[in-house]
Design brief:
single chain; alpha/beta; Rossmann fold; five-stranded parallel β-sheet; 29 strands; 35% helix; 21% strand; binds flavin-adenine dinucleotide; ANL_N_sf; oxidoreductase activity; FAD/NAD-bd_sf; Amine oxidase domain-containing protein; Amino_oxidase
């Protein structure tokens, strides 16, 4: 996939590579799982199930209501120009964002509560050129990879950068002429829960900077969780919440069975052909970052029947104990809404447990969020709360109430040596897809919603689709998977109504007549026209299309200027829309051959396009042009304008073919719903090998 291209373009040439009813299970309804589901639906897969242990989806994008206001405890902010996939999804569900211009970014002294603005922008500038340089390298090497058949798989997620930026961050930057990690980058990284930069391969810092440096900082109105909730409700998939996966077993026949504890505590079994496992699910019993406990001798994940390769890989993974603690505080009213970094606790890793950052989330409430690291051994929830409360006290505030606390198993990652030794090569080239199992989430993608979502999308495109010019089997592509009502989609297949019969007819026209006159189907929607924002702006029932096609056929066959006979060809010149569909079916009914051509914008100089239309008209010997009144009016206005502009210049621009124009939209408008059956009823049905329509490709007319 090319991340530079719009999402729609990326999907337009892809087809599902497995049967669309392949049973695909997704463990976890967080951003990764839901984004994978979105991509699968977009490809046309119709049997996708998410199993989520919490009572709602969203994963670490958890939003809670406290005293009537919404707070994001986990995923919250996005840089407007660095999160194209999330903003694409948000647009589809019309989620609203708010910019955070009035949010402060400051360093605060934990002993006095005095704060000072961070020079975020200045500081980031020093690292931007390196970030862009790495991105350029990744893009170009991916292109080279795609051109090289032997390595055609390309790289995605952290893998794209792991082979060039495995060095620890300070060393890597020194090697690239920077003395140290800029302070705002280092603080931003640590405050966001990714550990101390000196411990981390630069690849992770790169993923962080490239996703946070471009554009205004924004967040979702009503909380990030509401976005994922709407996505899960809009997708045509099954979502089981309060369903915890207890075990995943891969059977020799390739089938995957999972044990699930449902909301009543009962154990249930499910079976899938493919499984996508999200989040930190496989690393539940793995190592914790900066934990004093010795490394676990043998990695033994609780939930999965791991293969040797999986055990080897997952045993190298650490997660971070990251806490959000919510406190209601008096005495800090002077602190404006914003993010505050505790510099002294971020400079010194031995201070783990103290809060690294806090946020006044809303300007008009005294509820503050604190973020801290734990170590799974002696620094856990109560200690983390105690240290946050102490910090508030030393800043001159008083904790009225500890509202809540969350512990996240955060940011699965590997160390610099393992990254250097090809961890990500093995993960992507050997592990993904082994035993019909795929992994999405922070380890592969880096722990940010945009990174996770776009990785899940890329994984699905890579492993569940192909780009062969012709699909291997017919399937329905969903342009707007989030627009379908999920339950309705699942039960609403074509054979929905028991009374409907499926006769064996030889032509499209025959079927239109059948469905358009059948008492069950004639009032059902046949076509809905959707604009580029995904909104339905028009539609026709089977009955309407049938009637309109009959009327157009009648007008064609009774036309005097020109006289049109069976087998004659007419050009169809329509901007995309339902008028075109009606004209097309009208021609089929009249047994006149429609020749669709691409309408050029009449207001633009369309020299080449008009030449092509002229050539098509000549080649197919068209007798007339079917179009709409509105389009032809624009054509005439444009030609008058051209005549005036060209007057006296002696130049002659290409003209429309000299053929009569017929307006099918006016015919329909004036038809008064009269059904014209008589002059077309007794026409014999066409044979399967009769010519139905003519389509000229752009190259076929250029040199006529
Ligand atoms: C405090 C905090 C602040 C953050 N801030 C930001 C931010 O500002 N911007 C940003 O872009 N990102 C932010 N993130 C990161 C972002 O939230 C994560 O990257 C993202 O949520 C990861 O998505 P995921 O689907 O991979 O994993 P998760 O969100 O962890 O989702 C995994 C899902 O799997 C489910 N699951 C786990 N085990 C099982 C099981 N056994 N059975 C069934 N289901 C299971 C979980 O309940 C969960 O819903 C933040 C995260 C945290 C914790």
């Amino acid at each position: 996939m090319d991340p530079e291209k719009p999402i729609e373009d990326q999907f337009s040439k892809l087809h599902p590579c497995f049967p669309v009813n392949t049973r695909i299970g997704i463990v976890g309804g967080g951003p990764s799982g839901l984004s994978a589901a979105y991509a699968l639906c977009k490809l046309g897969y119709s049997n996708v199930t998410i199993v989520e242990k919490n009572q709602s989806v969203g994963g670490m994008c958890e939003s809670v209501e406290i005293e009537g206001r919404i707070y994001d405890l986990g995923g919250q902010v996005l840089a407007a120009n660095s999160a194209p996939f999330i903003f694409h999804l948000a647009k589809e569900i019309r989620a609203e964002t708010e910019d955070m211009d009035f949010h402060k970014f400051a360093i605060i002294d934990s002993s006095t509560g005095k704060y000072e603005d961070m020079k975020v922008v200045d500081d980031y500038v020093s690292i931007i050129s390196l970030t862009l340089k790495l991105q350029y390298y990744i893009l170009t090497s991916n292109v080279i990879c795609q051109q090289d058949e032997a390595k055609s798989s390309g790289r995605m997620g952290v893998h794209s950068v792991s082979n060039i930026a495995w060095d620890l961050s300070p060393e890597f930057l020194k090697g690239h002429g920077l003395r140290s990690v800029p302070k705002s980058v280092a603080y931003g990284f640590t405050a966001s829960g990714y550990g101390f930069v000196q411990d981390m391969p630069y690849a992770y810092v790169h993923e962080f900077t490239r996703t946070s440096m471009a554009g205004k900082i924004r967040r979702f109105k009503g909380g990030y969780a509401s976005v994922w909730q709407k996505i899960s409700e809009g997708l045509p998939i099954q979502v089981h919440c309060k369903a915890e996966v207890l075990a995943v077993r891969r059977k020799p026949a390739g089938i995957i069975s999972i044990d699930v504890r449902d909301e009543n505590g009962e154990k249930q079994g499910m079976e899938f052909d493919k499984i996508i496992i999200s989040g930190a699910f496989p690393f539940g019993s793995g190592k914790t970052y900066r934990s004093p406990s010795p490394n676990i001798a043998e990695f033994s994940p609780e939930h999965i029947d791991t293969s040797e390769l999986e055990r080897e890989m997952f045993s190298k993974v650490q997660t971070i104990d990251y806490y959000t603690t919510v406190l209601k505080i008096t005495g800090l009213e002077h602190i404006p809404m914003g993010f505050y970094y505790f510099g002294e606790f971020m400079d010194d890793p031995s201070s783990i447990g103290h809060p690294v950052a806090m946020q006044r989330f809303h300007a008009d409430t005294n509820v503050f969020l604190f973020w801290s690291y734990g170590n799974s051994v002696d620094i856990k929830g109560p200690k983390v709360t105690e240290l946050a409360v102490n910090t508030v006290t030393s800043m001159g505030g008083e904790v009225e109430k500890v509202v809540l606390q969350r512990r996240f198993k955060y940011f699965p990652h590997v160390n610099s040596q393992d990254m250097k030794n090809g961890f990500y090569d093995k993960l992507e080239f050997q592990l993904q897809g082994q035993q019909n199992t795929y992994f999405v989430g922070g380890l592969m993608a880096f722990e940010l919603t945009e990174r996770n979502s776009s990785y899940a999308l890329a994984l699905v495109c890579k492993h569940f689709s192909n780009d062969s010019p012709v699909p291997e089997f017919p399937y329905v592509k969903r342009l707007f998977p989030l627009k379908s009502n999920s339950q309705a989609w699942i039960s609403k297949q074509l054979d929905e109504s028991p009374e409907v019969e499926f006769p064996d007819l030889s032509s499209l026209n025959g079927y239109l007549r059948h469905w358009g006159t059948n008492s069950v189907t004639r009032k059902k929607t046949h076509y809905t026209w959707i604009n580029d924002r995904g909104e339905a702006v028009g539609g026709r029932t089977y009955g309407e299309l049938h009637a309109n096609a009959s009327h157009i056929a009648h007008k064609l066959l009774t036309s005097q200027k020109p006289i049109i006979k069976n087998g004659d060809r007419v050009l169809l010149v329509y901007t995309p829309g339902l008028d075109f569909i009606e004209a097309f079916f009208g021609c089929l009914r009249a047994q006149v051959i429609p020749v669709p051509v691409i309408p050029h914008d009449p207001m633009q100089r369309g020299g080449q396009a008009l030449l092509q239309i002229q050539n098509i008209a000549k080649t197919c010997d068209a007798v007339g042009i079917l179009s709409t009144f509105g389009y032809h009016t624009s054509v005439r206005a444009a030609s008058v304008k051209n005549m005036i502009l060209m007057a006296g210049k002696g130049k002659c621009s290409p003209q429309w073919p000299d053929l009569p124009w017929l307006y099918t939209d006016s015919w329909i408008r004036n038809s008064k719903n009269i059904l014209h059956q008589e002059d077309i009823a007794e026409r014999s049905e066409p044979h399967p090998d009769d010519l139905c329509f003519l389509q000229f490709t752009s190259g076929s007319t250029s040199d006529c």
